[in-house]
Amino acid sequence: MSRLEFMNIHIDSLTMPEALDRVSCLVENTRQSYVVTPNVDHMVKLQKDAEFLEIYENASLVLADGQPLIWISKLYKRPIKEKISGSDLFPQVCRLAADKGYKVFFLGAAEGVADTAAKKLAGKYQGLSVAGTLSPKMGFENDPDEVRRVVETVRTASPDILVVALGAPKQEKFLYRNKESLDVPLSILVGAALDFEAGIVKRCPAWMSRCGLEWFYRFCKEPGRMFRRYFIDDMKIIGLTWKYRRSKAP
Question: Which residues sit opposite 61 in a β-bridge?
Fold first, then answer.
């Protein structure tokens, strides 16, 4: 079994090729399935947000986003094979979609970003079919009329894969509350991946990601916005690591 118990959720221990095979199977054989990619910040939020936890419990595929989760899994003696972030998975899914003829819809990011990302990815992956793009206005999830408009736009486009880049847990909750109405075979929650592919935000160097320093890179770029997340909220992962290690001890 690829699914491993990890703190209060389960994570699929897969390599990138294995994850892409699973993605293809989900597109072709299911309706309303979705992929989540937990990171340290998600793990902290999952301790107190019951709806967020329910979303994770019902996900079709759960992939570890962040080297710290890989390290913790080794400490628990249930090692996860590979870090697969939403930002790493997203372009590979676009390549898969181009090869398989899947239609993809990009939902999220600031005005124009999804369009730019779509054009760049279509140039990079010959044959990629982008069913549409949409950047909803800030706070749209609190306006029932706007939610209906977004859902209808996606549903009319009839994509095989919906890429949602609204930030967590907003993107997960929007998708979970509306997946029946959207009726897309597979949705993938990717955070800032559209910004990266559009070139709006620069990703950290690969060596920093491998060393678990992506958080530090992002903090250096946006210290004001990221200080509380990384140095206050996410520090709770240390206590959680110990808590769940003790609770699983024989």
Answer: 35
* Spatial distance between the Cα atoms of 11 and 82, rounded to a whole number of angstroms: 11
Element spanning 152, H or E:
helix 144-157
Give the position of tokens 């919906």: 162
Q: Element (H or E) spanning 176, and its range?
A: helix 170-182
| Partners of 132 in the β-ladder | 105
Q: What gap in Å lies between CA 193 and CA 213, rounded to an integer?
A: 18
Per-residue model confidence as pLDDT tens digits over 94-117:
999 999 999 999 999 888 999 999
Give the three-state DSSP class for 133: strand
Pairing of strands 103-108, 161-165: parallel
**pLDDT digits over 31-41, tens only?**
899 999 999 99
Specify the 3-state DSSP secondary structure of 248: coil
DSSP for 157-222 reads H--SEEEEES-TTHHHHHHHHHHHHH--SEEEE-TTHHHHHHTSSPPPPHHHHHTT-HHHHHHHHS
* Entry pTM: 0.92
Distances (CA, A) of 84 to 11, 19, 129, 154, 155: 11, 9, 24, 26, 28
Report which DSSP code applies to 32.
S
Phi, psi of 57, deg, nearest 5:
-65, -25
Measured CA to CA, the distance from residue 15 to residue 64 in angstroms comes to 11
